[in-house]
Every structure is written in structure tokens, then in C-alpha cells.
Amino acid sequence: MAEILAIKPVAVEGPVAARLDKGVLRLTLANPPANALSLAVMAALTAELERARANKAVRVIVLSAAGKVFCAGHDLKEMTARRADADHGKAFFAETFAACATLMQAIVRHPLPVIAEVDGLATAAGLQLVASCDLAIASHEATFCTPGVNIGLFCSTPMVALSRNVSRKHAMEMLLTGETIDAATAKEFGLVNRVVPREYLNQIAQTIASKSSLVIKTGKEAFYAQAEMGLADAYAYTGRIMVENMLAHDAEEGIDAFIGKRKPEWTDE
Length: 269
Hints:
Structural class: alpha/beta
């Protein structure tokens, strides 16, 4: 394993703390102990993701959390309080799940890679957040579950992201039992990419930040676009993308550097 890159502490300022360091924008859920996805937290995360689109200094986005819980899912106390509304909370519940869907799709459709660094419990919509990210790195202490079935609320929206990342049998096992799995099992299921010591959590983010930002953006968009196509359409589409990529300055520079056995100098063009 490569050298350890220390994770600097993030100042807690509101429900989401943002810090940019060497191209890596770290968005930290900072409302422990549960780091629940209240409407305010989801709005803050979505706003930070949108803001990052216009910041050319950002090359990779990391989602992390303060405390022992990565994210406990939706704020059930906030939601339960709205049962006192005239409609028994129906409008607020719809608003909450719509905001959640907007956030998860903002991650998938974001031009920059988004990496979940999980060092604690990710449950329900918190697991959905992890599954929605392009990559997920877990510490040995991380755990995961979709426990809605235990409280009479099936994890239907987390199921969308979960079932697109793991096999149907594994997804159904988690959804039907509500049981917690450890980091090693999450890796076996395909929910996370790697399980590493805590001090190595941010290593992949730093590695990706060293690549051409143009190429990374091109590749991420193409990955999700082709995944929704039939085989022939996917090859036709990605063929066009490869042609456009070959004409980019960074492709010319990268290939020349490879042939010349030197380190490329990216311009992100």
C-alpha cells in the first residue's frame, strides 16, 4: 500500500462542513451523533455539490462524517413531529423523499467523482448515500444496514441505490432482514470498493485528484450514460466519446508522456 496521507481535521460549521485541500473537496456531515439527513442537511449537501460544479479547483469530492455514525438515514424525529400536521405529515414526507431523490441524483449526475469515506454506521438513507457515490471506501469499523423492516418502514428509496450496486439476492437479504453487515461483508456484496485502516481512507481521493480533470469528467458521464443503453448503442456512444477524448489536449499530452516515459502535465483541456 502507498504512503499514508493524513486526513486533516475539518472545522464544524453547520450541518455540513466543507474544506478544499489539493483538489479534494471534503464535505463532512457535522451534526452528530446521528448525522441524520434532515431537510436542512440534504439542502446543504445539495448546495455544496452544486457549488463545486463551478469551482475549477475541485477535482474530487469526498463525503465523510464527524463522530461514530456516518449517517443514520432520515431524521425520524423531524418526520414524526409532522404527524401533527392536518394531513398527518403527508406533504412533508413527500417533500423529504423528493429532496433525498434530488440529492442522490445530484451525486450520480455530478461531473466530478464523489467518494464516500465511511468510518462508522451507514444505515437506511445513509446507506443510500454511500451506494449513490461513485466509489465507497470503508474503514474496518464501518457497518451497514437497511433496517426499515424492523420499524415498519421498508427501505424502498434506499433500495434504488442499493439494488444498482449489489446483486439482487444480497440486496433482498439486507432489505428483508434489516440486519447489520460489517465492512468485509459490504465489500463482498459489492457495496464498498475497499476496506482499509482508518488512516488510508482518503488515499483513493488523492490518487484520482492527480489525474486529468477533463478525462475524469468525460469518463464518469460516459459510464452512467452507457449503463442505461443497449449493447450496440453503448458501443456506438462510447466510440464517439473516445474520438472526442483522443482529440483533447490532455490525451495527446498523456500519450506523448507515456511514449516518452515522463510524467504528464495536465491542462484539463
